[in-house]
Write a structure and sequence with these properties.
four-stranded mixed sheet; five-stranded mixed barrel
Amino acid sequence: MTKICPVILSGGAGTRLWPLSRELYPKQLLPLASHRSLLQDTAGRVAGAEFAAPIVVCNEEHRFVIAEQLRQIGISPRAVMLEPAARNTAPAVAAAAAFLVREDPASLMLVLPSDHVIRDEAAFRAAVATGAAAAATGRLVTFGIKPTSPETGYGYIQRGPALPGSAGAYAVARFVEKPDLATAKAYLAEGTWLWNSGMFLFPARLFLEELTRFEPAIAAAGQGAIESARTDLDFLRLDDAAFKAAPSKSIDYAVMERTTRAAVVPADPGWSDVGAWSALWDIGSRDPAGNVVSGDVITLDTKDAYLRSVDGALLATIGLDNVVIVATRDVILAMDKARAQRGLGAHGRPSPVGQLPDGRHRRALPGEAHHRQAGREDLAAEAQQARRALGCGERHGTDHARRGFDRAAREHVRLYPARRSAPAREHRGRPPAPDRSAVRQLSRRRRHCPPRRQLRAEVAPAPSSSGG
């Protein structure tokens, strides 16, 4: 019997789980649901005898972390493919399919996101076995999750008639993108709709054939990226030019919504895509007050909250209900749990206060505020003019540009221009710019003290030598 080859997609950024999930260390690399990372849990649940060694598709920045995490759990991947650019799921799966067809034309591939939670592995394996039987008859199988609530953050699949000869598998009637709440409630009441899990199982050759029918550019890009790929240590670098030529489309849009060979297997494996902090509250272990607590946390009169502290930060709450609070060494996020799906913005996470391009953060300097205004392309020029007017010169901006700040997005605006210029330590040891304010430079130890205190001491009359 042909073993199923898991293809684990690990290119997501997990922006709705900021500040824990960041560009260089996204949520799939974090231990959010167990003592292992989501990637390790995903690879571990497909490590049985019926599975071949997995293929992992990821970007270059995460390659060493992913290789080390797999080594820690004793898994040697068949290949770790490095995407030269983000192109959604269809090009990544096309490259993996081309790789498998070249080695074994009869390969079955199980496509799994690396950042999902599965709490019932026995139910998951049973669904995979059902899907494999349907795929062997020439079907492209997706797994539909039996809904438990009218979720508006998931896509939906309507189940069609049962497939003859494939017990437990059904034809797909149609796919629907994320519905509004009223529509989601109607779907739940109807009973024929399933959540779209984003997990797939199909013959690699059949997927490439259908992809060539509907999206020949993606199929050609995936095959070209494999034909011109090169080995780099333990990694397979997909060809840069070939892969970047692929349009950015998901498997659903590229193939599943257009093919007549789509099938769906309903499943209830305790699945979550961990798409928001509220999802971790849903699957977490709650205390008697309904709180899910992780890390160094103290609560008083707090109910139904998700509270997480990392990096040794102490988090204390009093009299709060239905909130999400995540405290890290450099960021505190607090939100209404009902707003967790939206996160920090309807169009994705904006660059938060103090974030550097590499995903790290820094604290604001005294007397500074970081401003990010979407659509303000003239912000950098205005800030530069402000610095000139305040006598800061050009060097202040040059030093920060050298340190990697995107000045067009995160400019430093002086809130208290009369106090002082930036401290010497921010100029890498060089003296600060000349002080043009009415208040002289304060010492490093006392620079946060109100200037009037020091001025009052300087003008106070000296004590009389006679003591009278």
